């Protein structure tokens, strides 16, 4: 069985906005986290595209990636993901081709097939365009071609983009992208940090149907895991209430800004809401290093994945950085 030492550790960053801080603070903190991740030996740090959400500052994903790349040296940085229905494939290829040209061998492109926002914002993003999720496979194929050597008589060439061979991942929270990733021989990342229900099925489907390709000779799977690691189970449980309040805000259609932790969630959520938040965070690891180590080993034994990609919604930015320090201590122990 694979050990934690042999499993890649990565970070998914949403540039969370605190209720008492500016968006600029969040963007600067994203860089501080990327620099810390690089020094700790994390494999990669990805940014997630979301729109019209007051608590998430990573909407202009490619722009923020440029800021992180310019101020780090070796860390692989990418999108987890670009929500492809919102974008023309050529524009995505040109943006990431530009980043890859400036920062060779460091840029990755994770692609999702959902819009990552509400219906009204989706229409604003797609103004004048009719693309739907059904076009996702075709758009993925188009992007893959833009990153290669142009084919003879290829009339549209991504410049920059051509010959950059940016690594492309498919992301998913259901079975569709797992099947497509298997067919195309691409690495696959499951969004179990917020939608864990179909994780086992998606992994099995991907493995069973994987076809070796120019990109991969064997399946490669990462899974999202929300984390709150602190020096004791009690401290972690306290810090985790910020994450619970954030998900509760999402479910209620309220602000997603990070709120300070509270001593107890009782009186804040209803029993039904508590159950929904717990389902949302079914894969979360909250506790001391010893508790989280045991939890991650259980996940590894059950799913046999290649990589964990961690999220964290701790309010205190120093404690948030410490979360990722403690995770790497767990890996290296």
UniProtKB/TrEMBL annotation:
Residues 21-298 form the Luciferase-like domain. One of its GO terms (molecular function) is oxidoreductase activity. Keywords: Oxidoreductase. InterPro entries: Bact_Lucif_Oxidored, CmoO-like, Luciferase-like_dom, Luciferase-like_sf. Its EC number is 1.-.-.-. It comes from the Bacteria. The keyword Protein transport does not apply. To bacterial alkanal monooxygenase alpha and beta chains. NCBIfam families: oxido_grp_1. This is LLM class flavin-dependent oxidoreductase. It comes from Acinetobacter albensis.
């Amino acid at each position: 069985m694979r050990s934690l030492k042999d499993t890649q550790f990565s970070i998914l960053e949403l540039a969370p906005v605190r209720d008492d801080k500016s968006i600029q603070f969040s963007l600067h903190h994203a860089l501080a986290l990327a620099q810390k991740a690089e020094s700790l030996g994390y494999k990669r740090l990805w940014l997630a595209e979301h729109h019209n959400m007051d608590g998430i500052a990573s909407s202009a994903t490619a722009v923020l990636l440029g800021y992180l790349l310019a101020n780090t040296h070796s860390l692989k940085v990418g999108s987890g993901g670009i929500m492809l229905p919102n974008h023309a494939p050529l524009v995505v290829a040109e943006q990431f081709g530009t980043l890859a040209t400036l920062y060779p061998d460091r840029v990755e492109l994770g692609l999702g097939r959902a819009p990552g926002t509400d219906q009204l914002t989706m229409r604003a993003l797609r103004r004048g365009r009719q693309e739907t999720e059904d076009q996702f496979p075709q758009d993925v194929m188009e992007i893959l071609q833009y990153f290669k050597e142009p084919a003879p008589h290829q009339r549209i060439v991504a410049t920059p983009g051509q010959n950059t061979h940016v690594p492309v991942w498919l992301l998913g929270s259901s079975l569709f992208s797992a099947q497509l990733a298997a067919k195309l021989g691409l690495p696959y990342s499951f969004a179990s940090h917020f939608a864990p229900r179909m994780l086992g099925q998606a992994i099995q489907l991907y493995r069973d149907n994987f076809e070796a390709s120019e990109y991969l000779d064997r399946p490669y799977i990462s899974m999202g895991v929300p984390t709150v690691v602190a020096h004791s189970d009690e401290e972690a449980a306290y810090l985790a209430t910020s994450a619970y309040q954030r998900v509760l805000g999402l479910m209620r259609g309220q602000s997603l800004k990070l709120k300070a932790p509270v001593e107890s969630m009782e009186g804040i959520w209803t029993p039904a809401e508590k159950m929904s938040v717990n389902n949302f965070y079914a894969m979360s690891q909250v506790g001391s290093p010893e508790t989280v180590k045991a939890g991650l080993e259980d996940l590894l034994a059950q799913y046999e994945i290649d990589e964990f990609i961690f999220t964290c919604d701790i309010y205190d930015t120093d404690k948030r950085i410490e979360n990722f320090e403690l995770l790497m201590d767990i890996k290296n122990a």
